[in-house]
Design a protein that fits this description.
The protein is of the alpha+beta class and 181 residues long. Helices cover 28% and strands 31% of the residues. The strands form two sheets. Strands 1-2-3-5-6-9 form a six-stranded mixed beta sheet. A three-stranded antiparallel beta sheet has the order 4-8-7. The longest helix is centred in the first third of the chain and has 12 residues. The chain starts with 11 loop residues before the first helix and ends in an 8-residue tail after the last strand.
């Protein structure tokens, strides 16, 4: 009997490979030189890999006295100025929305900050924002949220709606002189 494998609309491995050059540059955009950033993506260390797969942590940022954890999402083409959160997968697998809400509610490990950035296909930075993860997920109850469905269902939260509602958020618009590669 031949096994039928259905091809996913978005191959996460291809998406990850495309985003890595951009992702490696984001810490330079949002953090000063006092922070050392370690990317967890594609790391062979079993503990770091678990931080990625179980807790959704993409980076560990360290300065002289502290360590913080960060989740990052990169998109290409247009700067929508929104955080994009996967709400539903067609496979039924738990999404970051479900995992983060559960982690926050139960005191499990989750990224301290969430970062969303937009780039051109040539890796020019268009814009982005960073916010405490708990604030982003708390905001879902009192900011305008809209849904979009592709192969999965996503919710989008405007950077500027968050700012207008008083959430502490760092928003950066693109710099035409900044070339990321």
């Amino acid at each position: 009997m031949k096994e039928v494998v259905q091809k996913a609309y978005n191959n996460w491995q291809i998406d990850l490979d495309k985003t890595l050059p951009a992702m490696k540059q984001i810490p330079k955009i949002f953090f000063n030189d006092k922070w050392q950033i370690t990317s967890i993506e594609k790391n062979k260390n079993i503990i770091l890999n678990k931080l990625d797969t179980k807790s959704g942590i993409d980076w560990i940022a360290e300065n002289e006295n502290h360590i913080i954890t960060i989740a990052a999402r990169i998109q290409f083409g247009v700067n929508y100025r929104t955080f994009t959160i996967r709400k539903e997968r067609k496979t039924g697998t738990k999404t970051e929305l479900e995992k983060r809400k559960e982690a926050i509610k139960n005191g499990f490990l989750y990224p301290l900050y969430t970062c969303q950035c937009y780039f051109t296909n040539n890796y020019n930075f268009l814009g982005g924002a960073i916010i405490k993860t708990v604030d982003l997920y708390k905001s879902l109850e009192n900011v305008n949220v809209f849904e979009k469905k592709s192969d999965n269902k996503f919710i989008h939260v405007s950077f500027y709606d968050l700012q207008d509602k008083g959430y502490k958020i760092k928003i950066l618009e693109g710099n035409p002189f900044l070339k990321i590669a």
